[in-house]
Amino acid sequence: EVQLVESGGGLVQPGGSLRLSCATSGFTFVSYGMSWVRQAPGKGLEWVSSITGGGGHTYYADSVKGRFTVSRDNSRNALYLQMNSLRADDTAVYYCARSSGWPFYFDYWGQGTLVTVSS
Amino acid sequence: QSALTQPASVSGSPGQSITISCTGTSSDVGSYNYVSWYQQHPGKAPKLMIYDVSARPSGVSNRFSGSKSGNTASLTISGLQAEDEADYYCSSYTSISTYVFGTGTKVTVL
Looking at beta carbons, which residues of chain A come within 8 Å of B98? Predict the structure, then answer.
């Protein structure tokens, strides 16, 4: 059974940093791309970032480019999102999603972790 | 990249068919057959319903079908059931190697 479990969310002040993690199991991690998608409270889905299976290619939304960094540790079956220079509009539930095919579609999702940016 | 345009709400009675539209541009929906659809129940994670415009993942009911014409993709739910009441989002690959989601549609079963 494919499982994705996010962690690392919480309350952070504007300008601060946070690192999200996504622990995975139930599939051959290195064979799949992975992505982060966020959802602000009461709002729609927004794609944030993707990384290919080997980690050699990364992609970012303009809204986070230069502030967020996606990475993965294929030995630990884990995905990460380093978030710096956080702003109030980064407040959202952050989902990690297994990404299949190319271009990707997001076929399995975690339950999400809430990031709140506020003073 | 602007969000794809979806109707805010669509409703139907049990057993009826409804269609949700998803309008983009020639830089996303119109140029690629890489549109996917997601169902999200309140407080839950999204679930993949359709990928590559019309492909259905294993385990998804064949009551769900997808299509595309020009810059507009569509999701049709036939034989509407109470469990189909949820938010639905489309998504497309774009010409700048990013992904864009739709504005979301709330489906109500009357």
Answer: 47, 59-62
> What is the spatial distance between Cα B102 and Cα A23, in angstroms, rounded to a whole number?
28
What are phi and psi for residue B108, nearest 5 degrees?
Answer: -115, 130
Report CA B21 to chain centroid distance, whole Å. Answer: 7
Contact residues, chain B, for A47 at CB < 8 Å: 91, 98-101
Task: Report the distance separating Cα A113 and Cα A30, nearest Å.
Answer: 23
Q: Of B24, B39, B28, give the one whose Cα is nearest residue B89.
A: B39
d(CA A40, nearest CA chain B) in Å: 13
Q: Find how far residue A88's CA is from the centre of its chain.
A: 17
Q: How far is CA A24 from CA A34, A109, A115, in A?
A: 10, 10, 20
Q: Give yes or no for A58 touching B (CB within 8 A).
A: no
A45 vs B32: CB contact, 8 Å cut-off?
A: no
* Mean per-residue pLDDT pooled into runs of 10, chain A (119 residues): 98 98 98 98 98 96 98 98 98 97 95 98
